[in-house]
Amino acid sequence: QVRLVESGGGLVQPGGSLRLSCAASGRTFSNYHMGWFRQAPGAEREFVAAISCRGRSTMYEDSVKGRFTISRDNAKNTVYLQMNNLKSEDTAVYYCGADRVPFRTVVTGGRDDYDYWGQGTQVTVSS
What we know:
Blueprint: E1 3-7, E2 10-12, E3 18-25, E4 34-39, E5 46-51, E6 58-60, E7 68-73, E8 78-83, E9 92-99, E10 114-117, E11 121-125
Parallel strand pairs: 2-11
Antiparallel strand pairs: 1-3, 3-8, 4-5, 4-9, 5-6, 7-8, 9-10, 9-11
């Protein structure tokens, strides 16, 4: 049973920073790519960032490029999302997801490629 637990969300002013964490358990963490997605009220869950199983390759949604950084520590079974220069449009519940396929050839941002999700952590950017 795969379990993902996100933390680190909160209320921050525009231009501020937050670091999200996602602790994983239940299978060999380092065999799977990991992703961050977000869902604003009334919207679909959308891709934010993904990282390959060894951390050598990353992928970002265009609106967060240059502001967000995804990383992972396989020794701690944890994936992170450093978010800088936050904007009001970043307000959402942030979820981490685990790829359904081990050692997938490429990192993917497709929501259907991830089959395990955490409970989410709320990020609110407001003055």
